[in-house]
Structures are given as C-alpha cells and as structure tokens.
Write a structure and sequence with these properties.
alpha/beta; 15% strand; 11 helices
Length: 294
C-alpha cells in the first residue's frame, strides 16, 4: 500500500513539473510553508544549525533563512522531476553551466568534483552528465519505489557509475586512476569513522577525510561544483580547483579538510537559504561536548 501511494505521488509530481511554472512555485511556497510550520523536528534541526553557525544574527533573520530553506527544498523536490524526465534540450535550457574552463583545465589529472549539499544538487549533477561520464556516491532510499525513481533519474546520460557509500575506497581509487571523475558530497555527518573534527562556521564538525586523502594519494585535483536555484532555473558553477600536498601528517590532513569547509562556508554566505540546514551536521561531537539536537 505504501509503495502504491508513493508511486501515485511521484507520478503526480512528474505531471506537475511539466505544468505552468508559476503553479509549481506557488505549490512549493505552500508546501514549504506547511513543512516549516508542521515538520517540527526538521524545523528544530534547521534552527539549531543556524543558531550554531550564525550566533550573531538576529533570531528573526535565522527564522527567515529557515523559512526560505523549506521553500527551496520543496521547489527543488518538485522541479527534480523535470530534471529526471525532461529532454536534453530542456535540461540545457533550465540548468546553465558556468566555469567549465575550471574543470577542463585539469584533464591530465584525476579529478574529484566537490559537490556540497546545496538544494540544487540533483540538477547540477544530471546536467553535467550531458557533458561527461563520471562516478558518484549514492545512499539507497528506504522506499523501494522512490529508490528506483531516484536511481533512474540520476543515471540518465553517459552511463554514470553509481557507488554505494559502503563500498571500498579502492573502487574509487580505481575509477580515478582510469580517468573517471568522482562526484563527491563531502559535507554530511556520517560519524567519526574516517573523519576528523574540523571547524565549520566555528563549530567542530565531523568531516570525512576522503577528498583530502584521495587528492594526496593520487595527485587528484579538487574542483568544486555548486548548483544554485535561480528565478530562471539553475546555475551549476565550477570553481578553480586545488590539490592537497602529499603529506601524511594529521595536522596537514586537518588543514586540508578545513580548507574544504571554508570554501563551503563562503558559498553558503552567498545564498544561505539554499543549503541543507535540515541535516544534523553536528550530530557527532568531540569527547566532552554535549549533544545539540535534544
């Protein structure tokens, strides 16, 4: 029964995504407003994150950003079906790529595409598939119908390689050595395993070290790709890349992770409502520090 309801809901969203744009955005505003009001747990997570990251901001400003986040979350979800099922021509019109020269400048090296959790993430990833084959990490959905739709939607073009998060890092190394870029999402709290505590807006955040370690091991270039929602659609922008020195010292590892977090902070400040504030980014805490999510 649950799968049948999911299937019906997904088809309704797919139909809506190809309807009048004003209608979709009006529904996104309604759904986002209702979610902010009634999704108490997610609202509390967002407000906690914003209070930790921006303690000097007025409460009213943090609330405004949280409301904006729920709107963009709903809009990105609804528009995702146009990304998943629209024609290549439509996709190119709706999602613009900027800074492609920053990606093309490193074709002679392994490339890690650093894709922080902005809400336009799916749009940028699928759009880039039209240009290049790459590999990407994927966490399976608990609902089988949603998992099928998500997997199909994210693997439309150029036969991308989908890697489960529990697969060995040796698979990632193999793909990078064969010249396949890796689309990496580095800014979620997956626990303290393979992570270090690095500052994120002044807070200790458990941050995976894979990007830095792979860059050091293989001489890979880290090229960020940030996708933003705009009035016209989406803009996926590549930023200048960097490499991490081949140094095994833990201090250098933490410096590399901090550099990555600092870059993400700078992009968040440009469009704070579009970052994934409803994720428990500070779930893991250093020894002796209290939990922050109740």
């Amino acid at each position: 029964m649950t799968e049948a309801i999911t299937w019906l809901g997904l088809w309704l969203c797919r139909l809506l995504a190809f309807g009048p744009r004003w209608l979709l955005r009006a529904i996104a505003a309604l759904v986002g407003g209702l979610a902010f009001r009634f999704a108490a747990r997610r609202r509390a997570i967002a407000m906690t994150n914003l209070a930790l990251c921006f303690p000097d901001w007025p409460q009213e400003e943090r609330t405004r950003i949280a409301r904006e986040h729920f709107y963009f979350y709903a809009r990105a979800f609804l528009e995702r079906f146009e990304i998943w099922f629209g024609s290549p021509k439509r996709l190119r019109e709706r999602v613009l790529i900027e800074g492609m020269e920053n990606f093309l400048a490193h074709q002679d090296k392994p490339i890690i595409i650093l894709a922080p959790h902005f809400l336009g993430l799916d749009a940028g990833g699928v759009r880039f598939q039209l240009e290049r084959q790459f590999a990407s990490m994927y966490s399976h959905q608990s609902n089988a119908v949603l998992d099928t739709w998500t997997t199909q939607g994210r693997t439309r073009f150029n036969s991308p390689v989908i890697l489960s998060r529990n697969q060995s890092i040796t698979k990632i190394v193999g793909h990078l050595r064969r010249g396949l870029p890796i689309y990496f999402l580095p800014d979620m709290d997956f626990g303290v395993r393979d992570a270090v505590f690095a500052p994120f807006f002044g807070q200790p955040a458990a941050t995976v070290t894979s990007v830095v370690r792979l860059s050091r091991l293989l001489g890979a270039v880290v090229v960020p790709l940030v996708t933003r929602i705009t009035d016209q659609g989406y803009v996926a922008r590549f930023y200048p890349g960097w490499q991490h020195p081949n140094d095994d010292a833990k201090e250098t590892l933490i410096e590399g992770v901090t550099k990555m977090n600092t870059f993400i902070e700078q992009r968040i400040l440009e469009s704070p409502g579009q970052y994934l504030w409803t994720h428990r980014r500070f779930k893991s805490r250093p020894p002796g520090m209290p939990a922050v999510y109740g």
